[in-house]
Write a structure and sequence with these properties.
Layout lengths: L3 H6 L8 H12 L4 H14 L2 H11 L8 H14 L2 H12 L15 H6 L7 H9 L33 H12 L15 H7 L3 H9 L14 H4 L11 H9 L15 H8 L2 H9 L14 H15 L19 H13 L19
Length: about 375
C-alpha cells in the first residue's frame, strides 16, 4: 500500500463554505494564541474538515517556525478518533505540519498509533495506520510504549474475548510486523507474549503468522506458563484448538515442560480431559508418557485414575476430583481404549501399570 498517502490526499473532502473561509481569515488576522490555534484545529478535526485544517496550519506555520507539538497533537487525536476517510485526510494534513506521531497523550498515556489501533473497523482503518507509518520527517516508532510500558501490538488483544481476531485487526497486526514491530515483547503485569494471547483465542492464523516472523514458541509468562500449556485449558472444549496445537508442535514447542502447582505437562491435561485428538498429536510430537507430575503420576497412571472416577461417576452422582476442584469428564469406552492403547504404545517395554482399579473396571 505504497500509495496510501496519495489515497488520503484524494479522499472526498468537504468543501469549505464562504462563511467558514471568512471565519478562518478573521481568526488568523487576530494573531491567535497557541491555545486558540489548538482549539480551532481540534474543532475542525472533530468535524473532519481537512480543507479548514490545511488553511489554518499553512498560514500559521513557516519552515523556520513550525507549530508546537501541543497545537497539533490534540487535533491529531481528534482526527484519529473520527474514524472516516475524511478524518484520515485531517491526519495527513497534521502530519504534513510535522506533528510528532510518537508523543503520548497525557490523559490516556497512549500514543497516536495505539489509539488508532483501538478504533472499530471502518473503510479507512488500514489507510489510517499506514498514514502514521509513512509520516515525514518524523518517523513512527512501531515499538513506542504507553505509560505502562505496553507496545502497540498488544492493543489487538484487548479484553477477555476468546474469539480469533477480526480480519481488520489481523491486517493491522501484519502491517505493524512488516514495519518492524517486535513480536517477542512481553505484556506488563502478566508477562504474556503475543503468542500466549493468540493461543488463548484459538487463532490458528495469527499463531502461524507470529511463528513465521520468529516469535519464541517456548516463551514463559510470569506464572511460568508457555503457549503450549495454555492449550491444556482448551482440551475440554468442543473445539479445542487442535490446529493451534499443530502449529506449536511443528515449530518446536517443548511438550514435556511442566507447569502449575501440580507440575503437569500438556499431555497430563489432555489425558485428564479425555481429548483423544490432542493426546494423539502430543504423542506424535514426542511427548513422554512416563513424565511424572507433583503427585508422582505419569500420563498412564493419570488415565487409569481418571478412568476409575469416570466409571464411578456413572453410578454415583456427583463423584469427582473434589480435592482438585475438577469436574469429571465422561469418556466413551471406545475413546478410553484408544487413549490407553496410544499411551501404552509409547511406554517402555518393561512398563507396568501400578495403582488400584475399582472392582469391575479395567485399564484397557
Amino acid at each position: 500500500m505504497d500509495n496510501t498517502w496519495d489515497m488520503a490526499s484524494s479522499a472526498p473532502t468537504s468543501v469549505m463554505s464562504e462563511r467558514t473561509k471568512s471565519r478562518i481569515k478573521s481568526f488568523l488576522f487576530l494573531i491567535p494564541s497557541t491555545k486558540q490555534i489548538e482549539y480551532v484545529l481540534s474543532f475542525h478535526c472533530q468535524r473532519g474538515s481537512a480543507s479548514a485544517v490545511k488553511a489554518i496550519s499553512s498560514h500559521v506555520t513557516t519552515p523556520n517556525k513550525p507549530l508546537k507539538h501541543c497545537q497539533l497533537f490534540h487535533p491529531l487525536i481528534h482526527a484519529i478518533k473520527g474514524g472516516t476517510s475524511r478524518h484520515n485526510k485531517c491526519v495527513r494534513e497534521l502530519l504534513v505540519g510535522r506533528v510528532n506521531p510518537n508523543h503520548r497523550s497525557k490523559k490516556s498515556g497512549l500514543t497516536p498509533l495505539q489509539i488508532a489501533l483501538d478504533r472499530p473497523n471502518f473503510k479507512g482503518y488500514a489507510n489510517l495506520i499506514w498514514l502514521l507509518f509513512t509520516s515525514e520527517p518524523r518517523k513512527l516508532d512501531p515499538n513506542g510504549t504507553d505509560l505502562r510500558g505496553e507496545v502497540p501490538l498488544f492493543r489487538f488483544f484487548l479484553g477477555a474475548d476468546e474469539e480469533p481476531l477480526e480480519a481488520h485487526k489481523r491486517g493491522g497486526l501484519i502491517m505493524l510486523l512488516k514495519a518492524g514491530a517486535d513480536p517477542n515483547r512481553q505484556q506488563p503485569g502478566t508477562g504474556n507474549s503475543l503468542l500466549h494471547l493468540a493461543v488463548r483465542r484459538k487463532d490458528a492464523v495469527v499463531t502461524a503468522i507470529l511463528l513465521h516472523v520468529g516469535v519464541d514458541v517456548n516463551a514463559m509468562n510470569l506464572s511460568g506458563t508457555s503457549p503450549l500449556q495454555i492449550t491444556a485449558a482448551q482440551f475440554h472444549q468442543p473445539q479445542g484448538g487442535e490446529e493451534v496445537l499443530d502449529h506449536l508442535l511443528k515449530n518446536g514447542a517443548k511438550v514435556d515442560q511442566p507447569a502449575g502447582a501440580l507440575r503437569r505437562t500438556t499431555l497430563h491435561w489432555a489425558v485428564r480431559a479425555g481429548n483423544t485428538t490432542a493426546i494423539r498429536r502430543l504423542l506424535d510430537g514426542g511427548a513422554n508418557v512416563t513424565t511424572k507430575d507433583k503427585e508422582q503420576r505419569d500420563a498412564i497412571a493419570l488415565a487409569v485414575k481418571h478412568t476409575n472416577k469416570v466409571f464411578v461417576s456413572k453410578t454415583v452422582l456427583g463423584v469427582g476430583d473434589h480435592r482438585l476442584g475438577e469436574a469429571v469428564t465422561e469418556v466413551e469406552a471406545g475413546d478410553h481404549i484408544e487413549i490407553m492403547q496410544g499411551l501404552m504404545g509409547k511406554a517402555p517395554d518393561d512398563y507396568h501399570i501400578k495403582g488400584f482399579l475399582h472392582q469391575g473396571t479395567y485399564a484397557i
